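Bench log, entry 3. Co-assembly request; chain sequences pasted below exactly as received.
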Amino acid sequence: MDCTSSCSNATLSEKLKADILRLKEEKKAVILAHYYVDGAIQDIADYVGDSLALAQKAASSCGDAAIVVMCGVNFMGETVKVLCPDKKVLVPDSQAGCSLADSCPADEFATFIAAHPGHTVISYVNTSVEVKALSDVLVTSSNARKIVDSFPADAKLIFGPDRNLGAYINSVTGRDMVLWDGACHVHERFSAESIAKLKKEHPEAPVLAHPECKRPVILLADKVGSTAALLEYAISSDATEFIVATESGILHQMRKGAPHKIFIPAPPIDSTCGCNDCAYMKLNSLEKLRDCLVNEEPEIVVDSELAKRALKPINRMLELSK
Ligand code: 13P
Ligand code: SF4
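Structure output for the full assembly:
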């Protein structure tokens, strides 16, 4: 290994971290990070969580902060802005979109809703603010089942945009929700065949899968749950090896929470890709985080009327999650 470059990389990263901590104090900023961003960002954040926990954090305790930096993807920044309209909300990289949110354009979703009169619209939080504003209630993977269960058994429901999460919730609740045909490119990529093969080599390793995975992967899983639920299971379970079918960023917290355990990333369909990274989440870096604190941009801006409409289903979700 080239010690000179690895030593200077370490020094650079320490300097970046020191700058971020200083700027955070100076600018009264709070840093939120999703479990899928790089481990170094998770470690410097004031709060790390899954989508539900981050929304709850934004709603309850951005407190005195003047600035909230959302290290994740844009829809998460928009949710924070809707919940904290008086704060300046920054994201380290404005290109951090989401293939799932992109799979549900608001105008097409509005047409879909109009084609199903009398239906209540339940949307996953992984959507644009425009789609949120069209929805009756939002859910995350942590609370989707609970919120769907809160509706009468014969309620007519639309679920969007993730067809896999929707199909999973239909299967565990016995519902027949009408599903929007969207998906996340990271979670759709896992190969049930390769996971089954891996399971033969590691028969004692439970398979942990996010409900955004396709049905054949879900059927192989020992535990299906949100990012936070999978983390909790991995740390508290007696097993010492796990096959993890979700985005790679979560491995950082799993390894921190249970350093003696082995976490094996589930193989994607395209084995040449060799990783389970969300390219959007991985746009976040310490350097961009430092720069966004220096420049106070990119800033998330949401039209105030649109924000008011999006706030209702977000608040309904937070209320139903209690
Ligand atoms: P959760 O944070 O609800 O597990 O969702 C995963 C995800 O894809 C976030 O983009
Ligand atoms: Fe979107 Fe999938 Fe990335 Fe989550 S992992 S931000 S759903 S593309």
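The pocket of iron/sulfur cluster (ligand 2) is lined by residues 36, 73, 98-100, 126, 184-186, 247, 278, 280-281 (CB under 6 Å). The first strand starts at residue 29 and ends at 34.
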